[in-house]
Design goal:
The protein is an alpha+beta fold. 49% of the residues lie in helices and 12% in strands. It folds into 3 domains: 6-49, no CATH class; 83-252, Glutathione S-transferase Yfyf (Class Pi), Chain A, domain 2; 279-402, OmpA-like domain (60s Ribosomal Protein L30, Chain: A, 2-Layer Sandwich).
């Protein structure tokens, strides 16, 4: 068979090779398809070869559209256990423990304040009863007033124990404040941890706010505790001086007044408007065991040369406390920072034995007056002691000078 010209095209489909020959002549070869030769030359399309009807291209692929409802659905926000979530759980546990401690501190503080108020009321009631009875007149060492005095002293002692408890509470509150600062820093550091989801940061923000609120409560408790300590300590200091003066009044059955130590200017520094006086040993006064008493030399003394108080012990029981209290009270109102000089004066007449006996008695009387001044609230460090033999004295005397 002759083929003048042909155009061949090869197509690979289903693993079979087919060659198609296009002839321009009228005749063409007849092929028996049942024998399935490996090479077939024909211009007819193969039956069942549908793969060649639509060519294959690597064109663009359209992805499915994602809507906002799909993003905000519960499928995205599935529970996820992260390292930050574990840190949040740990911080919450520590915060609950801290809040429990703070609540206990607040409850203890309220209870302690209530006890202090009750004891202060009982103390002032006892003191008011004693002052009222002393003002109206009573007997020396009245057992009823002694019992009230013991009750007042017991209240002061319990209030002093409250101060110790408040100090312990202040230490515990300071520890709680340190714990709160640590938790706050831990919360802020957890924001920088890697591997967190959105819910973790939201939980961290909530814990951070709760820690801040707890720190504010701790600061409030700590401030109240410190205020109570300062106020109660100052109250106890003043009332202990008052109770000593009151005890002396109950013993003698006579009213004196408030303690001389309770003065707002008792600890004020001296004024620089006036040149302070210079001091030198006093002439004519024999010094005792302590340093020699000093008298002003370059400046005029605050008081007159005569003593502020002169007490003559010419009888067994000399009631001198009221007069001494009034004189010292008036002097301290004028000169809050003044010093006092306590001189034991004994007669110089008689033999050496009589002079020695009178000197001993004068010293004992001066010691009694010194204890009375201390009970009235005078600081013993502001009192100078000395002795003096006088030819003019007829009995033992105690002189008080203001310098």
């Amino acid at each position: 068979m002759k083929i003048n010209m042909f155009h061949a095209r090869t197509i690979i489909a289903g693993g079979a090779f087919t060659a198609v020959l296009l002839a321009s002549s009228a005749g063409f070869a007849q092929v028996d398809m049942k024998k399935r030769p490996s090479l077939v030359i024909t211009n007819q399309s193969m039956a069942g070869n549908t793969a060649t009807s639509s060519p294959i291209y690597n064109g663009p692929v359209k992805t499915p559209d994602i809507t906002a409802a799909q993003v905000n659905s519960g499928a995205y926000f599935q529970p996820t256990q992260t390292i930050v979530a574990e840190k949040v759980s740990e911080l919450k546990s520590d915060l609950m423990g801290l809040q429990s401690r703070v609540n206990n501190l607040a409850s203890q503080l309220k209870a302690m304040q209530a006890r202090s108020a009750s004891m202060a009321g009982e103390y002032n009631a006892s003191v008011a009863t004693i002052n009222t009875q002393l003002q109206s007149g009573t007997t020396p060492g009245n057992p009823r007033l002694v019992q009230k005095l013991q009750t007042a002293q017991g209240n002061l002692d319990r209030m002093s124990q409250n101060v110790a408890d408040l100090n312990a509470m202040a230490v515990e509150a300071a520890n709680a404040a340190s714990m709160g600062s640590f938790l706050l820093e831990a919360c802020r550091s957890a924001y920088g941890l890697s591997g967190a989801v959105e819910e973790d940061h939201a939980a961290l923000a909530q814990v951070e706010d709760q820690v801040n609120n707890t720190i504010v409560t701790i600061d409030r408790v700590l401030n109240e505790v410190n205020d109570d300590i300062t106020r109660t300590a100052a109250y106890l200091s003043a009332e202990r001086s008052n109770i000593r003066t009151l005890s002396l009044a109950v013993t003698n059955g006579d009213y004196y007044g408030a303690s001389l130590a309770s003065r707002p200017f008792s600890s004020a520094p001296p004024s620089t408007l006036m040149q302070p006086a210079s001091y030198a040993p006093s002439a004519g006064i024999s010094a005792g065991p302590g340093p020699a008493p000093l008298t002003p030399v370059a400046a005029v003394p605050l008081s007159n040369p005569r003593p502020l108080v002169k007490i003559k012990f010419d009888q067994p029981n000399v009631e001198y406390e009221q007069a001494v209290y009034m004189a010292v009270n008036e002097a301290m109102q004028k000169y809050p920072n003044a010093r006092f000089e306590l001189i034991a004066v004994n007669p110089s007449a008689g033999n050496a034995a009589q002079v020695a006996i009178e000197s001993t008695r004068a010293r004992r009387n001066a010691e009694t007056v010194l204890r009375s001044l201390s009970q009235m609230g005078i600081d013993v460090n502001k009192i100078d002691l000395s002795t003096l033999q006088s030819a003019e004295a007829r009995t033992n005397e105690v002189h008080i000078y203001i310098r």
